[in-house]
Amino acid sequence: MVCMQRMRGRGLCALAAAWIAVTVPVRGDILLVHHDPPATGFWSTAVTLDTALAAAQPGDQIWIAGGTYVPQYTAPTGNPPPTSPARQRTYFVKVDGTLEIAGNFAGTETQIGQRDHINPAHETILSGLIGSNPNDWNDRVFHVITAVPDPFTEIQLRLDALTVQHGWATGETGGEVEDPIGQEESRGLGGGLYGRVGELVLTLCTFRENRAGIASCAAEYQGGTVAGSGGAVALLGSKAGLEGPEEIEPESYDIEIVACTFDENRAEAGSDALLNPGTHGGALHVDALGFAMRMTNSVFRANSVYGLSCQATVTASGGAISFGVGGGWLTIVNSTFVDNVAETSGAVPGTAIGAAIVRCPATRIRNTILWGNTANEVLSHVSRPPQSAACWDDGTVTYAHCNVELTSGTQSGTGNINADPLFVDREAGDLRLTEESPCIDAGWHEHLVKDHYDINRDGNLLEDAPDRDLANRTFGCPPDMGAFEFIPEEMPFGDLDGNGRVDFQDLLLVLSCWSNPEDPPLDPSDPCAPSDLSENGSVDFWDVLLILAWWTSCDGEQVTQGSVSECIDKFGFTNPAALAACIEAMIINGTP
């Protein structure tokens, strides 16, 4: 169902809005964060983000105005302590329950729906850069965000429209250190976000230039053993009683990633003669037994895992993602994986596997592009054929309507292709599709995910989730492969609602603007003027015929003027609702 702006509040759209109001739980307080809050007005109560996190209670929202923020809260010292205490700074999420942290506010809004979600002028950056040199790990915090509750509690955390960058999770001295609440975990996990969460939702977020681990054979790192995983995000946890996947698609997901970008994150590890460490997931590492994760309309670009072998071998796996070491469920829909790398080097041969994804226990990949991902060395196994371009798996992986780069042939599964996606500017990171791309209209509508988290804040949870640019995911039909839907500069004639096709919604718009004989001619400024396709000054029978003449229904069926005339004869134009219902039935069933 599509709720157009001019018709919102009427009919089915009003019913959907009422349903949403009843079923969505009421939030708690709104805590405001601003660099320079105004003296009066709604935002005058703004505080620092550290203060807001310390005060937050279950059910609260934290709104952050655009700007760059660096954590000042110093987490409890681990064991052993870091050489630079400032590196302990982090945005510490401690709420036992649900919390939403949202950015990209101008600092004038009083409702979250007023926010311009993706306006770069209001970008909210949470930065781990505490010094001046992003290439010096001493100038970066371990974790920009830490979400580690008491072991007996769970956090349900949503991060929305935030950019998290320049965290560098190093062990410093090698070996194990304690996290901020005393659990023994390696510091080499999750430079952007490190956590133990019950549920995590990431929407419209960007993680860029975060790192985990240090690939070094230098003596000051105790023989060079510093293993890192999840350059941007590392999540740990388990569910008691779950030993592995029983089906390919769970009923619900513990981790949802919607319309996010992971760009140039890195995980790395060095090895000495005593240990054989590995590094996993250049962007994302999930070591959570029995968890289910789904990612939709997201981009993984130029992430990498790097293993430096000194006196023992090291494994580098999952240039973009490492998921489900102990079993789980993974679903990937309409996402783009480009130029991710798994690489090893050094005196002792190492192993690099899973250029894009590794350890896929029960995985569905749909409407997705995997292109230009590389592994400099591929582990061969009799039951696991080398697959450097896409997913090296420990379980069942299925692909459908995907563009997967292979040296020859196409990936097994329905609707898969192997063709250059023809991005706008791959080198510069613009992974939108050009007009000639073979990925346009090559996806499948049944794979799409509904907008359960209302990422565009329009109140409609029943529509398909919009793409990475918040554009209509089903522009034209069927949908495109990848994270971005191709939107041409010119809309088809008769496409009044801008969804790329002429369909029943456009017919409804015409009928809702129907002109009576006594009505004056339409003024060009009238909201109904676009529905006057015949340009005769009124919205009438001729505009209905023009809609039908340009009809582009997804099932390919064409509507004939003769069959429409049967509906007109039966109901006339005095009852547009009945006429519309008749025509809809004729479109669907072929009979008025």
| Rg, Å, rounded | 26 Å
Number of helices: 6
The total strand number stands at: 41
- Alpha-carbon distance between the termini? 22 Å
Placed side by side, the strands forming the largest sheet appear as 1-2-5-8-14-19-24-29-34-38
Low-confidence stretches: 1-27, 173-178, 219-225, 241-246, 377-388
**Average predicted local confidence, pLDDT:** 79
Task: Give me a quick take on this structure.
The protein has 6 helices and 41 strands. The longest helix is centred in the C-terminal third of the chain and has 14 residues, at 576-589. The two termini are 22 Å apart.
Detail the topology: elements first, then pairings.
Blueprint: H1 11-23, E1 30-33, H2 49-55, E2 60-65, E3 67-69, E4 91-92, E5 98-105, E6 124-127, E7 145-147, E8 156-160, E9 163-165, E10 168-169, E11 177-178, E12 184-185, E13 193-195, E14 199-203, E15 206-208, E16 211-212, E17 226-227, E18 233-238, E19 255-258, E20 261-263, E21 266-271, E22 278-280, E23 284-289, E24 291-296, E25 299-301, E26 304-309, E27 315-317, E28 321-323, E29 328-333, E30 336-338, E31 341-346, E32 351-353, E33 357-358, E34 362-366, E35 369-371, E36 374-375, E37 391-392, E38 396-400, E39 403-404, E40 423-425, E41 430-433, H3 504-512, H4 541-549, H5 561-571, H6 576-589
Parallel strand pairs: 1-2, 2-5, 3-6, 4-7, 5-8, 6-9, 7-13, 8-14, 9-15, 10-16, 13-18, 14-19, 15-20, 16-21, 18-23, 19-24, 20-25, 21-26, 22-27, 23-28, 24-29, 25-30, 26-31, 27-32, 28-33, 29-34, 30-35, 31-36, 33-37, 34-38, 35-39
Antiparallel strand pairs: 11-12, 17-21, 40-41
